[in-house]
Amino acid sequence: MSSTTNNNSHRYVHALNELDDVNISRIRPLIPPQILMEDLPLTESAAATIVKGRKAAEAIIQGTDDRLLVVVGPCSIHNPAAALEYADSLRVYADAAAEDLCIVMRVYFEKPRTTVGWKGLINDPDLNNNYAINKGLRKARTLLLDISEKGLPAGCELLDTISPQYIGDLISWGAIGARTTESQVHRELSSGMSVPIGFKNGTDGNVKIAIDAIKSAESPHCFLSVTKQGLSAIVETQGNKHCHIILRGGVDGPNFEESYVENYTQQLLKAGVNPRLMIDCSHGNSSKDFRKQPIVSDSIAHQLSATETGKYISGVMIESNLVEGNQNIPSDGDLSKLVYGMSVTDACVNWDDTVKMLDNLREGVRNRRRRAAALSNASDFEAKFRTLLTKLDVVEGEETWGQIDTALKGLTSLVQAGATKFETFVPTMKQAIKYVNSAVISERTRLSGTALALVEEMAKQMETRFTPICDMVFPSAMKTCGRANKVFVTRGVNSLTTVITYSHIPEQTPRICDAASTDPNKTVRSSAAKLLMAIVSCCTVPELTPHLAVVESAIASGVVDANPDARTTARQTYEIYIKRFGNRVEQFHAGLSATAKKYLKIGAATGNGASQTATAATQRLPLRDRISAQRANGKPAIAATAASAPTNAQQADALSSSASAASRPKPVRPVARNPPLAVNKGGAGAVAQVALSLTSSEVKAPEVQPPLATSDPATTTASNGVESLLISTEEPATMDKPPQDSARPSASPTATAHESRAPSPDAKVESESEAAAPASEPSHPTATASPAATADTAESVAVEEAPQAVAVVDKKKPRRVAVAPQAVVKRPASRAQRGPGLQFSSLGSGGGAGSGSRAANKKGGASAASRGPHAVRPQSRNIVSSRMEEALRGRPKSRFGAGGGAQRPQAVKATSPSDSADRLDRMTLRSSSRLSNSLPFPTVEPVAAPASGPGYLRATAASAKRGTDAPVSATSTAASRGTKRRKQDAASTTDDLVSAESAPKSAKVGARRRSATK
């Protein structure tokens, strides 16, 4: 019994094997579409390209876009790298021809075969019959993504009914081949596709099957298919309304000629389907000879230009590749034998022939537009205008951009066809002006360009009769000149320049001048300046004469505009203006400001040749020499040799002669700030000595060796009554010792009346040449006591004698320097007791009389001679480095005020000579060897700087912790003593130096960090 059962089961299984999958040799898993789409997702840029291509193709097929749809590319894709190279070239041409052609790249992955052969990249990606379909699907999707991201839409033939689930979201147009047009499943597939579909006529040339296919695809269907997840499903469609026919010829010959086109369009109209068709230049129409494809394209271009059938031709298909012809796949599988860029299926034309064919088709499209716009009379124009106006009367949006653009191009064609010759043109066109203005200011770049092209064409055709329409469109066109997008700005300026060239429009001159002068948008001002130049160049003298006043005002404003483009254009406009209106030049120049004259170089040509040559030579000098050549009277001078440099007396004479000048030139501040050569208040150095001498009427000071640039002494004041800082490289300082118990002597009646104030940030800086003076002719500034000092301040200043300390150099500590004689000035206890303090006056040609009050100096009352070139200002930014300012900002607060405000002065605390030496070691400045080598006068060795006195001295003391390159020699210090007064001072008691410890802590820390960094 069991044996019988087993035999029956075996026979049943054997029968099943004979009934199912008899001819199936192998089944392999297929990747679901959703998985592949997730691995290779659609990017945003690719999606934008695909949507744009689909909408353009739909509009052309439906007749709302008069461009030509061109599907061009290789017969089939077998090398993705070559396909991408072809796409790069095609993209460049597509952008240039976008106005006439909508180019879609032919990217065919599946090839139907009459018998057998290579079936395409998806079926056999390795071209070796291994049928790695999963790999082929991945390659196909990757290539479509790359092409779409380049901005080029792609089209494919739909052969397999499942493959569109893998790549259907990446194509903008699809085709059903001649062998599958009659297939029911492909008609059902087309009814559900989201792209326009073209059906080819049969291989035998039968067009009836293609017409039936279009009717079927436009209808709803229900059929079996698979989902994105790879599951079987029942699919219901609603029909595809964007289908068309493709004429590809047949066994009986081509069908691209005019007679065939006319016949087929009549059949399509009779069947009630879209009569617009596409013509394939290859296959049966070229008799399988790729060299005949240009013949077909020439015929199509002729029909577009000169026949009635041309209006029904909506597209062209071309088989093209990098290299012409075709080749067979090597039988041995060696793909290296393949020619790069040559087809392995049907033969193709090369790239150069493709460009020629496309150019010919572009010309045909343009001729078709001209023919469509041809007008016989005014009634014909009005009828066509009303049709276009209906298309314009829609809300602007993504769905209507194409329709509006086509309608505007239609209006342009009417203008080109001669509509402007009719008397009804202006009143009729005014009905469309609001739509034109809306398009001009549209955010859609292409739409704005089409509207501006219409405005240009009307100006060209109407010339001076364009004024009534220009008044309505000019404001909108001007708005494009102020857009942030440079494409809009450039296009707007070019369009309005064209309008001005042909129509002149002098009535718009005030509007343009107002925009060029007062508009807050610099882009508008620059654009208006260019339009003003076009007005001045193109308008006739009678046209422009009524508006010369506003034109001159606009030029005067433009040459001083903050926008350099506007200034340049205004100067160019000025050159044109003075040539055309020479009789108004003097009147125009009289109303210009000094700055405008400077920019326009008015009067430069009247100068003598020598001064112009000197000016040019000065401009060629390095910056340092140009600064040195700057004179007080503002006239540059060139010193060929050092012997030609002026003496100190000559400088004083020059200052005196320039005292009556209307204004002083703005001093030139040196570019680089160098640290001070030496700063010393009461200390000693090997070369430089600084001291103060308080007598009954003045303070005597030694000769000063100036730094790089000094300040104007006429505006110099002493800070809080503290003595001035003087630097000497010749004679040591002397000190007259007044009685300690006596009151401060009254100032001389001729003393200056400047009040004691902090350094002014607005202090002028003299040039290096003005500051420098030969050592043979010293000029000593004098600090005098203020006449406002009274008995209340009799004891405000006292000087104590200090014993002379011997300068010693410690070899183990080479930076330690002994203390030199100095005078310690005891500061008053309060600001009221200090009084106005000491003032500066010059010992130059002005004598000891000084230069008058500070108020007089502000009013320009002080003579130039009273401002000696060697009076050193304590607040000079050239003496005080930026590091001093940092120390000032870091000054600690006191209970008397904020860190930066006035503080109660503290009495100087005496210390021992040894402590002073230690602190002097920390206060020694580092000399700048680089600066010493570059200066024409001897540098000053670094000396100690006390921390008391004005803020800049305290900052100097804080920065002095950096140290010095070499210690000060005791021998050089002793050698500098040559007078009896100095020997007496050496025997006196040495006053203690003010410790550098009083400098702000933050400044000291910063100095250490800077020293470590260096």
Summarize the structure.
Helix content is 41%, strand content 6%.
Written account of the structure:
The chain has 1014 residues and is of the alpha/beta class. The chain has 38 helices and 14 strands. It is elongated, with a radius of gyration of 47 Å. Mean pLDDT is 72; it is low at 605-619, 631-826, 836-880, 892-914, 916-979 and 986-1003.
Q: Beta-strand level of the residues, as a percent range?
A: 5-15%
- Distance between the ends: 108 Å
Counting DSSP E segments of at least 2 residues, the number of strands comes to 14
Shape: elongated
Count of DSSP H/I helices? 38
Largest sheet: 8 strands, parallel, barrel
What oligomeric state is this? single chain
As a whole number of angstroms, the C-alpha radius of gyration is 47 Å
**Arithmetic mean of pLDDT:** 72
Give the class from helix and strand content and strand pairing: alpha/beta
Helical residue percent band: 40-55%
pLDDT under 50 segments (min length 5)?
605-619, 631-826, 836-880, 892-914, 916-979, 986-1003
Spatial strand sequence of the major β-sheet: 1-2-3-4-5-8-9-10
